[in-house]
Amino acid sequence: MKLISSIAVLVLSFGFLSCADKGQSQFQTLENAEWLKSDTLNYTFSVTDTLNRYDILIHIRNNIDYEFSNIFLVSTLDFPASDRTLVDTLEYEMADLEGNWLGQSKGTVVENLLLFRQGVVFPNKGEYKMRVNHLMRKKGFAEGLSALSGITDVGVEIKPENNQQ
Question: 3-class SS at 150?
Fold first, then answer.
């Protein structure tokens, strides 16, 4: 019986370790569906595969209180055991010209899958850290919004590039 338990633990451990290279995702739920300008969302991923290509996606879930057709983000990706950092300012369309949401609707929530990077080969094994902030402001105002209403969740997903599976 002890041998079977040990084998089961070994098989489960191997399954979890191999999943790290098949894809990872993390989500943060925003309190009261409100993303404060001061809220930096942090994500950490452990990478063991430095040979295959991966896509990095940002998931934005919004509800009907979101009053914009787009979103501006700044993302920062820190590499392990290095001073290398990628910083990007991004704009994503979230609705068409008629105001129809572009993402997948589930009740009153819309999920948008936003491609951050495509075909990434991670150069180092280790912990990669990603930070995401919003840069939204109202038209005609230089000052950013202190709170962005209608954003319920923000997530980051790393998955094998589409043609690898």
Answer: coil
